[in-house]
Design a protein that fits this description.
8 strands, eight-stranded mixed β-sheet, about 15% strand, alpha/beta
Length: about 230
């Protein structure tokens, strides 16, 4: 059975989560941000795993992180029309956006066992919400839901993504700040695109959507219209 999933992939700060959340609201579907689950796992590891005796966190293994996720547990909980991450029964939506989590999440997300565990949780969530789920991430259309009837690869120029990221943080968009943020995003893009497991790339049948010159409302409208054509009713 073809899953009722809209897969929205793309690089960091391309507007995936904002777009996906609004598309889900317009369609009356649920929204799942896969990055939030990876961030929740990273937060759990930061708070609970230390290398015995050394205090170093460079020796995390997939088995350690997945075991911790099962024990605490780390899970997705449907709140209204949004899947939210919980760690040990606590909503961690704010904590997972911290700089310390942001610094480590790419490394955690590159671990094969972690990706397998996260993918299984996402498929379970979609199966439990038959009306439909809009999922955003980096490998949703290529790996997690390769049979999704609607796939979008959302991107924007590095400078535009940098300006958006700075705006989210409430920072100034001075040229120097934009340049530094753009460089940081480019490094994240390179890490995501060259990792051996589920690299960031558009699915062969994805619609490529450059949002550089689009407003959020315009990009939401494009995805909603696409979904209504391919998934009538």
């Amino acid at each position: 059975m073809t899953p009722r999933v809209i897969a929205i992939d793309g690089p960091a700060a391309s507007g995936k989560s904002s777009t996906a959340a609004l598309v889900a609201r317009r369609l009356g579907w649920a929204h799942l941000d896969s990055g939030a689950l990876y961030r929740a796992l990273t937060l759990a590891a930061l708070d609970n795993i230390r290398d015995a005796g050394s205090g170093k966190r460079d020796t995390w293994s997939g088995q350690m992180i997945v075991g911790l996720a099962e024990d605490l547990p780390v899970r997705l909980v449907l709140v209204g029309d949004e899947f939210k991450p919980e760690v040990a029964g606590v909503d961690v939506e704010e904590e997972i956006r911290s700089e310390r989590v942001t610094r480590r999440v790419s490394a955690v997300a590159a671990i094969p066992e972690v990706r397998t565990w996260v993918n299984a949780r996402q498929r379970e969530a979609a199966a439990a919400h038959p009306s439909g789920v809009v999922v955003d991430g980096r490998d949703i259309g290529t790996v997690v839901f390769p049979d999704a009837p609607v796939k979008v690869f959302l991107t924007a120029t590095p400078d535009e993504r940098a300006r958006r990221r700075l705006s989210q943080r409430g920072g100034a968009a001075a040229p120097g700040d934009v340049r530094r943020e753009s460089q940081a995003l480019a490094a994240r893009d390179e890490a995501d695109a060259t990792r051996p497991v589920a690299p960031l790339k558009p699915a062969a049948d994805a619609v490529l959507l450059d949002s550089t010159a689009l407003t959020l409302e315009e990009q939401v409208r494009v995805v909603v219209e696409l979904a209504r054509r391919r998934l009538p009713g």
